[in-house]
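re: ur question from yesterday

yeah so i grabbed the chain u mentioned. its 609 aa long if i counted rite. heres the sequnce exactly as i have it in my notes:
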Amino acid sequence: MTKKTGILILLLLGFFIHAQAQVEEVLFSAQGGIYDHSFQLELNCFYPNHHIRYTTNGNLPSATSPLYEAPLSLDESLYSHSDIYTIPTCPSFLFYEPTSVQHAIVIRAAVFDEEEHLIGNVGTNTYLIHDLGCDTHNLPVISITADSLDLFGYETGILVPGIHFNPVDSLWTGNYYQSGEEWERRVHVEFYEPDGTQGISQDAGLRTHGGTGRRGPQKGMKLYAREEYGTKRFHHKFFEELQIESFKHLVLRPFSCHWFSHGIQDDICNHIASGLQVESLTSRPAVMYLNGEYWGIYYIKEKPDAHYLEDHFGNNDGDYNVIGNWYGKQEDGDNTNFLEMMSWLRNCDLSENAAYQALCSMIDMDCFIDYYCLELFIANNDWPANNMRCYQLQDGVWRWIFFDGDDCLMKMNLDVFDNATSENGHGWPNDPTSTLLFRKLLQNTDFQLRFLSRFDELLSDSFQYSQTKPLLDNAAALVREEVPFQAERFRKPYNLSNWEELVSNIDLFLQQRVDNMRDRINQYFFLEDQQISEVLLSPNPVKDHLTVKLECECFGFTELHLYDLRGHQLVSKQLILQPGINELPLDLTLHAGVYLLEIGSYIQKLIVQ
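ran it thru and got these structure tokens back, copy pasting raw so excuse formatting
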């Protein structure tokens, strides 16, 4: 080796060592997770002329943070003393402040040089200790850690009313209603399975999420994985039902929405939807800690956007168009095709077969019918003007994603057909644009038959109480042990007994809904007597095969009853009739004699030979 070469190697080695020193990170003797007992946590760095500073309140370590000098005993002394649960995060009339909250221990640590310059990245670990009363009741844990000003600062905090709050419009203003990347905050997110296995530990972007879900103290949130935060995706198999093991975005849905405290309706509705020809979102309950303080039950779930479609269908997210309301709100991609379809709908007559067939080439009719059957069955009170999302794949056909079932499974008396077809609505929950497509489709006899046949099939299968009851029981069982702590933290629900009563109400809804829904279908589509203009029986007298001919003015239901002369009902069935002549064959196994056949207000004598 020449002298020149040796000098070059030494220079490169020095540069490499210097570069390594600039990105030195803290070595934790134990990663975050769920532990039975407290223990001593050691923090180390490689270079002796460097030192470690740490925080326990979620803020990033700085030159004034505590100096690490000896192993840390993971006990109550390391709890955050920021008491962020006392900070009003909503209008005052919605705010509830508990007397205390549970804690996890969050250690954020970083290496500093002799001049107190930060060296490398900040390490963050959350420790949940059973001996300290930190029990997740077999639920996974999501821990979010962030600088307090990013969350609670008057001008910059995304979880407080803050500078954008207007007392005159207290329900729809506040920092938490701001949107876009400007209101995305860098956080560190950890996810731990119930057995303590670490799923993710990475920096990510956090924003608030939802409509009314932003204004309550327990807010809706969403997480963004970005390369600028270190990792492009969240790499973990969050959901057993899916083969997908990485996600671009995740939604954190609060257990208590603004209106109701049941907590589990959305989970149940998505499980019902998963058996239909419509896309639905997979979710999973978890316990959240925010800067080490208990923040209640959240559902970690998929986000209905182009990345969801990419994960489920392949290709690139740029290949999909996603629409967020009936006015063509552009969530992803291009809304031109959707707007053109809605404009065409306003002037077309779908009673004409050519127009109906043209529409069938624009939308996946099986998906649309299942979507509407579901929304009507669950009595979604926050729809159709709200919570609609459809998407377009490369085949150019529009399909629907079900999401947000918070305001469902409760209002048995909601007139769901009037809600879905009204032409006189003003904004929420319906308006003429949001009901246009379904109203137009009901003009077409082929669609009516297809829709009612499918609805009848679902009412006899997927919507049966025997199918929905296990979904309710499972959803309730997953969170039951945690509900008292959710109630203590947010008073939503008020207590476990209150919640059990709410669950019983959902159970009663599901028990009665199939019969109730059949009644509503009958009421909406039932024919009045004057709409049946003629009834003929052929042949009469008859031996065993009878044809009933009815002439009808419009589509709808009527009922057929057959009685003997003593008034005993022998046959009862519902008939679906189309405009014009309807021929209905009946196979009869009757003794010879005289019978009375009743259809609507028509009663005719039938002679059986």
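noticed a couple things. Confidence is low (pLDDT under 50) at residues 6-21. also The CA atoms of residues 412 and 513 lie 7 Å apart.
anyway ttyl
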